[in-house]
Structure formats: structure tokens, C-alpha cells
Amino acid sequence: MLDNVSVDLPLSPLLTFPGAVAGPPGTPDAAVAWHYGDPFGEQRAAMQGATVIDRSHRFVLSITGAERLTWLHTISSQHIAELRDGESAENLDLDLNGRVQHHFVLTDLDGTLWIDTEGERGQALLDYLAKMVFWADAKPEAAPDHALLTLLGPRVAELTAALGIEELPRETYAAVALPGGGFLRRMPWPTADSFDLLVPRTELSAYWSRLTSAGASPAGLWAFEALRVAALRPRIGMDTDDRTIPHEARWIGGITEHGAVHLDKGCYRGQETIARVHNLGKPPRHLVLLHLDGSADARPAVGDPVTAGGRAVGRLGTVVDHYELGPIALALVKRSIPVDTQLEAGPMAAAIDPDTFPADDAPQAGRLAVDRLRGR
After folding, report:
1. Dihedral sign for Cα atoms in the order 22, 90, 77, 264
2. To 5 degrees, how large is the angle CA 126–CA 121–CA 267?
């Protein structure tokens, strides 16, 4: 369950389609389909064919006004002041201490900046943006009349006719308008062939039917989450807590680096922490992929401690079964923990995937500069 939020989202109309099994009760994902009867087959299809996934429980808002980009640029972590029409980015809202409050994806198209974020956190993000407008020509508003679908797979290109477009966006984060409203946006994750589809909510069922009739197989959110975890992409509130800073969650980087924090911009809340950790310090924790022992009778839950020899060394995030990797999870673990440490996650033995263990032994540029000034 997402941290520090209640779960009260309207059910997606697509849950009435044949085979849909709702997400785990008591979680925000209960509002959409978790699978359609073949969870591993749906993951495989997302990697080899074309699938459509209901993510209509995402909160959508829009920002209009001539200063929408330059204004948002000054209060968020990504460099978006010069974003061009049809371009997108990932972005963060941080608190004064650099801790992550919101992660969101944005697209600027035809004079409107569209933002989608976690359903349970969207209103809080909108409230914050609204109170920060002051004198700027920017108007943030909820857009409940739009909803998000995701297309995954190398055969998504075969769906262009069903979408009413000539070709898919070629560049990462590029978006093209859809006839009748909305857009198709290329994303860098969770797979190499990932596209978000923002459509009018009244057309949600029609798009679903059109896409599945054109060859896209229905896939539940389980498939998206499994591939997201394998791609080491965190979900705020699941894989983060109220202490998480962007360095820990691998959100550092500009648009071309597929990150959410541009290191060469200023003028945003929390930037002092970002600069200090990047130039002089080290993040206290790392986001890593854990392989879990599937023989245990019970499964750990989001937020459970990760322990080593009975001592807490981290926090467990998303736990999911992957069609090839088996039970896996994301976790924030202390930077001092060696990669080969024997871990426990709840009732299960766990091991860090060595390929996901970050190498951060290199000294920071700021530290080297200080040493040079001191003649070291």
C-alpha cells in the first residue's frame, strides 16, 4: 500500500471486461485490473507482443497559461523551462530538506501542460501547485475527464491505425496528439517499447475495445509492476518513504538521462540537499533489486524491514512475481551493506542482485575541489 494515504479510488469501468481480476484489496491498485487470468503470460506478451494495461487510477491534472513551463520550472527539480511542444519529462516535488514528496510525468502539448501522478497523491500535488502560483500566468486544474492507458511490447507499432495516427513517436518522452483529444507518449520504462496513452475518460472503453480488436492483448497491472521492478524504477510511496531523497531512488538526471532531477538548475525547494549530496556526500541508502526465496509460506509486505543477522539494514518496497526472475522486490538498503550480504525480507531469505548494486566509490567533484584547495 502507498505510504500515508487512504485508499478510496473509483473503480475503473474496464473492470467489467471479460477476465478482469481486480488488484489486491485495500490498495490503490484495487481500482484497476491486476490480471486477466494469465499473469506470467501477460508479462511475456508485454515483452514479445503488444499489450494494453489499464492505469486509469492515475491522477491527471492540467496547467494552462503562458508561463506554465517557466513557473513550474522554478518550483520543481527538472529543467523544463524550454520544453517544446510535444515533449515530456519526469519531475519531482521536494520538501525543504530534499525529501521526495511527489513524482510525476508531464507532457506539454498544444498550449496545455498535462501531468499524471499516483492517484492517491494527486490532490495533494494539485493543492501545492495551486498555492504556489502567486502572480504567474499558470492555472493548474484537476482533469478527471482524462485517463491513462499503457501500451507495452515490440508490436505496438501495429496498432497505429487503431490509434488514428501514422506512426509512433520515435524519441523518448516525445508525444503525438490523438484525434478526438489526448496523446500518445513514448516512455523509457518499464520496457524498451513503452507508451502512455492519455485519452478522454468517456472514450476509455472504446479505446480498450479498439486496441484489443487490433491485436493488443489485455494485461493487468501485475505485468506492469513486475516489469517496472525488474527495470529498477521506483514507485513513490511503495519504494520510497518519508526520508527518501532522489539520489537514493535513482531519480538523478536530466531529461536525456531519463531522470527527474537536473543537476545544473537552481531555484527549487530542496536543491541545497541535492547539491550537497552530489558534490560532497553520499546517499545513505541505495535502491536495489532483491531476489527472494520463493519457498517461504508467507510473503513480506511493502514497508517491512530488510534485515541482516537480525539487524535492520533497509526497507522493503514493491514485492512481485516476475515471469522469468521469480519473486523479486525493490528495497532501499544502507549504502554500507556489502552486495553479498545475506539478507532477510520478512519471512524470506533475500539476496541483492549484483547487477543492480550501484558503484559509488568515486570521489565527488566537490570533494576533490576542496582537497585541491587544501593541498591534498
Report:
1. positive
2. 55
- The predicted model scores a pTM of 0.93
- The Cα 281–Cα 27 span in angstroms is 36
Percent of residues in the chain assigned helix, strand, coil, to nearest 5: 25, 30, 45
Give the number of other Cβ atoms within 10 Å of residue 325's Cβ: 15
Q: Are 136 and 65 in contact (CB under 8 A)?
A: yes
pLDDT at 9: 72
Give the integer Cα–Cα distance in Å for 94 and 274. 10
267 dihedral zone (left: phi>0; alpha: psi -120 to 50; beta):
left
SS3 169: coil
**pLDDT tens sequence across 104-141:** 999 999 999 999 999 999 999 999 999 999 999 999 99
pLDDT digits (tens, 9 = 90+) for 56-66: 999 999 999 99
Averaged confidence pLDDT in the chain? 93
Q: Where are the beta strands (DSSP E) in the chain?
A: 21-22, 33-35, 51-54, 59-64, 87-94, 100-109, 112-117, 139-142, 146-152, 175-177, 183-187, 194-200, 217-219, 285-292, 305-308, 311-322, 326-334, 343-345, 348-352
